Amino acid sequence: MIFRTATTGTRPALRRVRTTVAPRPLRHRLGPAAVEEIPFRASDGVRLGLTRVETGDSGRPAVLLLHGHTASADMFLQPETRNLVDVLLDEGYEPWLLDWRGSCRLPYNETGQRYTYDDVALYDIPEAVSYIRGRIGDRPLFVVAHCIGSLTLSLSMSAGLVPGLAGVVSQGVFLTPKLAGRTSLRMTVAGELLKGRIDHIPVDFRKVGLRSKYTPLFALASRRASCPDPTCQMLHNSAWGTGASLFVHGNLSRTTHDRLAELFGPAPLWILPHLRRIELARSVVRWHDTDHRYRALPPNALDAAGRIDTPVLLLAGSENGLWLDSQKLCHDVLARRQPQLDVTYTEIPGYGHLDPFLGRGAALDVFGHILEFLGERR
Q: Looking at the keywords, is Isomerase present (predicted)?
């Protein structure tokens, strides 16, 4: 049973929180002894997932990996490809993986407490960084972040909550989110039309069935689709109904393509108001204006970007069908407004939004840029 409370101000309604449910197991090909699953709970009570990959070498620099919304740490561990964790291990790094509260390994998007990206920026990322620093001592700590993981990290960084990082690789979007006009319009219309009717948009048609309230959404996603798989249609052809595309189809291996419903979960509609405010501002803005708990976060992260004290590599695929040229825009804006910052931009030809990590050729085409950036600063 779901319990609802009255909404006051901008505070989201709360529902029963399944904070005791452990994250579902990660899928990987590493030895069991090499993967340390750490019980980790944010200070607001939400259980998260934190994983350390044991290397046997206590002197390695650490790299924290942050997934996008509805994805999980699985996106960095795909057993069917040479993944980012494999590459980091071979190059002498100690990988750490955070499943923040938007992970599909956790229950919060469907059955847990509603949240905004403020919560991720204030609790999840800074507290994970603090824990890791307590374990690694004075070794360098890098962060590689994707999509909303990167966007919320930018809010944490501009708030001064994660100082002293050795370097940050931001993939897809950072301080200046930019959506296509039709994507923004569809997001706004969908949020208004579906508000009060459904909580989330699923990606796995097998779980909802043909006779469900979600059938029209899958039917809409299938229009002009070249792939018959409903999950691929929802992600590649529609991006949860927004009309955007999340990857270049030919860049995925068949195995990864068949695992899309495992790698990505349902998108919560109740997060849309915050996402729309961010997109309209073309900046990462705080949602909570009156709740004193969030005063540590700046109202506008771009205005506070001068507090960023670490080198940043802005990475993006040339065919990013979701965030378009947000990273190039971010580089240009920061070069003009904060020229003292160490920010570089690299574009990956022929790649979209997700395939820079999920693509079968990512180890050859993408990961070298990440390793070069980390290697110059380790």
A: no
